[in-house]
Protein: ATP-dependent DNA helicase PIF1
Organism: Paramuricea clavata
Amino acid sequence: MALMKQADFFYLFDSHARDSNGMPDPNGTAVVMKFANILELEQYLYSLSMSLHANLFEIVPVRLNICKASEQKSKCVKDQEYVLKKRLLIENEGDKQARLKKASEYKKRKQSEETDSVRQIRLQKLSESIKQKRSEETDSERQIRLQKLSEFIKQKRSEETDSEKQIRLQKDCESKKRKRAEETDTSRQVRLEKDRLNKKQKRAKKVSQPQHEILNQQDYLNMFDRTKNGGIEEQCWAKANINKFSKSVQYIIEEMLIARALPIMRVYINPGGQRGFSGHCINLPQNVKELAMSLPRYPKDLAVIIVKAKGRENTFRDVTVRKQKVDNALVWLINNNPHYSELLINQDALNSLPENGVPPGLMTVETDDDIVSDDNCSPDVGPPTDNPSEDIVYNDSTEMSSFLPVGEQQQTEIEAVRNQLSENEPMPWPSVENEPINEYQISHLATMAFPTLFPDGK
């Protein structure tokens, strides 16, 4: 039996229907009696015990609490979560794997049996749940989630076979094509704008990276495992980087501006337009102390004379200089070439260079002749061979000659010639040593003379 209080009365309930005498009766009622105080209840129970021939009875107080259905459900959910957490804490790795496998199989089986409408509803609910959950997460929680996702993807991709990788890439490619084919013009513009902002943020993040987090060359080489990764020169990123640098400096004057040693050599032009050289190559140091600490050179210090033909359009494509390319090349060499690591960029000399044009200060001379050649000098064709035609590797009409600077006693005459040609105020000739650089005593001389051929100093 149970009691319920309402207003000023108590109601006695029984789990079995009873008649007026208190005996179980299927046609009776569950509400046994209504009374106002405990004394009436005792009298009723006493009369009932006499009818049932029972001498003992006990009144037990019971507290009834009214609970809402939602609160009751929430309590049940919490109890289930508590039981689940407790079970997860005591399970071993084998039990965990078995549980996850069963859950995965059950999920797959259930999803394979669902209809299209049910699937759409499930995916819609899942998407809304994910969006709501991500909108409520903090920045730290978001970083942790992205970090875990990145590690999971890396681990999964490291374990996949070549065939699985090809299948994944094929699916990604098809999915990307399908999405882009279905997107509208507005969504396409939004996607392109997001890609642009993402690239911009990556570049800004790379530039703003603290200096102490950037590995220098020696630390990087110490961390590089040659036996595991192969030589640096074999890496695709190294080849691409060096190839990109070599192509960035495409004009002769640009390479002369960033070279630490200036070679003097005989250059010829093949009938097809390609350049070559014959004979020996001599390197002369110019103001070694200054050049060892400062680049680029000033254009006026280059041993270059521009020969212009009267009455013709002179484009001077070969003497074009692009200031930004020279700056980029020097920065790359300082960071990647050990022979340039201690050099400083001369900002005054760099600012004197044009954005894209012929630098000022180069000596210029005009001629009426179509071709300027040195008729008094025979080209050095090298040692004779069995095939005489092999010795003729140049075109007389396209031969370019240079000179070997002599001692200090000739500088006055040279300065006079230079001032006459340039028609500018007299300026001091760059200090040039009398003796050529000994290539057997100077280490890596060729890399300093031709930085675009040996950008990494090797």
